[in-house]
Specification:
alpha/beta, six-stranded mixed β-sheet, globular, about 600 residues, Rossmann fold
Length: about 600
């Protein structure tokens, strides 16, 4: 194995009270792709800053290869002092770095370089920061929540770019699908210590559960051993005093170990407050349209959302997801068309603009709207401190100002407020931002099992697949198409993998084609597929299966963490072959889908 570019050993750091890092270990060699995971507040970002040299640990050793270059992507990039995005990005280049690389990255990230930093949205600022840290092609690339505020097409591009890079990559992300596709090793930061799994994030949760179960067994065994020793000391046969004192000392040490053991942190408890059942029809939109000047955001969109539906809106940043969401929920009037809301609707909304919260307000005051120490959740009166514990807040945080919360804590606070309100329609705009994995899992379960109706906007593919019953996606020029199923189902129906590169067949066109076929069949004998079309329809499934098997083999090869170290040239060739096979698969599936639809039309 190649010598490590980076090695942290026995890292300790505390800000008073329980140590944040207590003997953490981390190493990375060239080409490694490491997911750094752990709960919000566990110290992941702090550990990454220690790697970057921005924070000095109180104890432990930090080794970086003297010649190794390191680039760090913070959650909040600082662009002060730069006149343009290009100036900001090129400032990250070294004397020997290729400036064309910066241009290439900005183009693929949808930036011209002429933008002014003060005018950037959150997503644009994140893309500029990514271009800055990736342009030098550093030996060690540190990414803290790189997918925050990015749209799906950019996330998919970033996955491919990171798979190709020869840099050692250590990344923190709440996007499960992103971690599964990029990582080849996983480091779990838990209660100040690190554990490493030499497999990607896809295998992490099963391994984590095994570790926690074994830890619980060991703690139980220690407790039983303490009971036996206490019994021996009280009732055993008297032995020499020296031996008794030794065993008494061992018992005291065991008691100390048992008492000082930090068990796994509790999980958040999320339950939405139920309101009276809404009518069967929740939202009906007919031919709604919205434009801003010459820009058409929504054109001729119609849908019916019924009680129990869970609808996800996806698409690139700026395409109009939030605008469409506001029109569907009655917050924004359409320029044309109509929106009808059902009866008995109680709407609870989670806005993606976290800064809308008054930073000076305390947690307790925010949750109760300043109405004392209690709130009503699901018809039951709860003390605010008790309710805060459900969302992993400590009692002493009740008087803490919102400004002192981390991004993850603020996300949990907003969820706590939204879920306390009686609702039968949840409207969630980017609900997964800044949530840790455990809280995200609970939110998934809540949304999937919610008795009412849910309309949400999200870039999190895994979250969409686990929760929604249909997906609404843009199709260009203000048109939006609704697909049954989750995000992966939408891709299968569109026959592609990137939103801006695949064009879906609109439902209206499909309906018109069916109507024309029915009219034709009523007037003349039904047409049949040609021999060539019929042969292709029969043979394509076998080809698709063969290409899918080839993709699986190539993905398994790339999953080997030592592959790149053994043979970098073959690794790059395998990546190229995998891209080619994926393109072939998309083409074959699209051809089969067109032929199958043609067959259905001809058969009426």
């Amino acid at each position: 194995m190649a010598p490590p570019l980076l090695n942290l050993d026995g890292i300790k750091l505390t800000f008073g009270g329980t140590p944040l890092l207590d003997g953490a270990v981390l190493s990375a060699s060239a080409g490694e792709k490491i997911a750094l995971v752990g709960r919000n507040g566990s110290g992941k970002s702090t550990l990454l800053k220690i790697v970057a040299g921005l924070i000095e640990p109180q104890d432990g050793e930090v080794f970086r290869q003297p010649s190794a270059t390191v680039r760090y992507l913070p959650q909040m990039p600082d662009m002060d002092g730069f006149a343009s995005v290009r100036a900001y990005v090129e400032a990250g280049l070294g004397p020997a770095d290729d400036p064309h690389r910066a241009t290439y990255l900005m183009e693929h990230l949808g930036l011209t370089g002429e933008e002014r930093p003060n005018d950037l949205s959150g997503g644009e600022a994140r893309r500029a920061a990514l271009a800055r840290v990736m342009a030098p092609e550093p030996d060690i690339l540190l990414l803290d929540e790189p997918t925050n505020h990015l749209d799906l097409s950019v996330i998919e591009w970033l996955e491919e770019e990171l798979a190709r890079t020869s840099s050692a990559v250590i990344l923190i992300s709440h996007d499960r699908r992103f971690l599964e596709r990029v990582s080849r090793a996983t480091v779990w930061l838990d209660r100040g210590q690190t554990r490493r799994l030499d497999r990607g994030f896809a295998h992490f949760e099963e391994w984590r559960d095994q570790v926690l179960e074994e830890e619980e067994r060991e703690q139980h065994k220690l407790g039983r051993q303490i009971v036996r020793e206490e019994h021996w000391l009280r009732y055993g046969v008297t032995a020499r005093r020296k031996r008794n004192m030794r065993r008494l000392g061992e018992l005291q040490a065991m008691r100390q170990r048992f008492r000082s053991h930090r068990g796994a942190e509790g999980s958040a408890t999320m339950v939405a407050s139920d309101a009276a059942e809404s009518g069967k029809l929740v939202i009906e939109a007919k031919g709604i349209e919205k434009s801003f000047g010459d820009l058409t955001v929504v054109k001729g969109f119609s849908t019916r959302i019924q009680r129990g539906d869970r609808v996800g809106l996806v698409g690139p940043n700026g395409v109009g997801k939030t605008t469409l969401l506001k029109m569907l929920t009655g917050e924004l009037a359409p320029d044309a068309g109509t929106v009808r809301l059902g009866v008995n609707l109680e709407i609870a909304t989670l806005d993606q603009k976290r800064e809308a919260v008054d930073p000076q307000e305390t947690l307790a005051n925010y949750l109760t709207d300043g109405r004392g120490e209690n709130l009503v959740v699901n018809g039951e009166q709860r003390h605010v401190v008790s309710y805060m514990k459900d969302f992993l807040f400590k009692p002493e945080q009740a008087r803490t100002p919102v400004r002192e919360l981390s991004g993850g804590e603020r996300a949990r606070l907003l969820l706590a407020r939204v879920l306390a309100r009686p609702a039968n329609l949840l409207v969630l705009d980017e609900p997964t931002n800044d949530l840790d994995m455990e809280t995200l899992e609970l939110l998934q379960e809540l949304v999937a099992g919610f008795a009412g109706t849910v309309v949400l906007v999200s870039h999190d593919r895994d979250f969409l697949d686990r929760t929604v019953t249909s997906v609404i996606a843009p199709d260009g020029a203000g048109r939006w198409i609704e697909y049954a199923g989750g995000y992966s189902d939408m891709l299968a129906q569109r026959g592609g993998s990137k939103l801006e590169e695949r064009k879906a067949r609109p439902k209206a066109e499909a309906n018109e084609a069916t109507a024309r076929a029915e009219q034709t069949s009523a007037k003349s004998p039904a047409k049949k597929l040609s021999f060539k079309q019929k042969f292709a329809l029969e043979s394509l499934p076998k080809k698709i299966e063969a290409v899918s098997a080839s993709i699986s083999r190539l993905e398994n090869n790339i999953a080997d963490p030592s592959f790149y170290e053994r043979d970098p040239v073959s690794f790059q060739k395998t990546i190229a072959a995998l891209d080619k096979e994926r393109t072939t698969l998309a083409s074959l599936e699209e051809e089969w889908l067109e032929l199958e639809m043609l067959r259905e039309e001809m058969e009426g």
